[in-house]
Specification:
By secondary structure, the chain is an alpha+beta fold. The chain has 3 helices and 7 strands. A 4-stranded antiparallel β-sheet has the order 1-2-3-4, covered by helices on one side. Strands 5-7-6 form a 3-stranded antiparallel β-sheet. Strand 6 and strand 7 form a beta hairpin. The chain is globular and about 35 Å long. The chain starts with 16 loop residues before the first strand and ends with a strand.
Length: 140
């Protein structure tokens, strides 16, 4: 079983989690905003703010647990199609628990497969590969 990686921050706006993309090429910040409607995970990438529904943490973990095996991440911008069978495709599928996009801000709803997996890894809920590309994840 993988060990929980060390992550800086506590997941608040004042002390956001400091995360790195699966490939290790970029760093970004995330924190919980339980006061927003719906409650969200705020993802700060440079000067860009993305938001995903907070329930995505539990929903993604539950789906991966049920799947029981590795799943490709498949990150893609909202305007591009997501590869079938990937975390990205699940994060926008009408068949997921929210019936569509976990991303909240129109135009910035993609990249679910890039930014959510490292958070689940930091929380000790998943294992994530860290290759230059074509990474996968699975539930712990």
């Amino acid at each position: 079983m993988a060990t929980k990686p060390k992550v800086k921050g506590s997941g608040t706006k004042a002390s956001p989690w400091e995360l790195t993309t699966p490939s290790g090429s970029s760093t970004y910040l995330m924190y919980r905003d339980e006061t927003s409607n719906p409650p969200s995970i705020v993802c700060i990438v440079g000067k860009t703010e993305l938001r995903y529904q907070l329930r995505a943490i539990d929903d993604l973990h539950a789906m991966l647990k049920k799947r029981g095996d590795w799943m490709p991440l498949g990150s893609a911008d909202e305007q591009k199609p997501a590869a079938e069978g990937t975390v990205e495709a699940w994060g926008r599928s009408p068949k997921n628990p929210v019936g569509g996009w976990y991303g909240i801000k129109k135009g910035l709803r993609g990249r679910f497969g890039m930014y959510m997996p490292p958070l689940l890894e930091a929380l000790g809920l998943a294992e994530v590969e860290h290759n230059p590309k074509n990474n996968r994840m699975r539930a712990i």
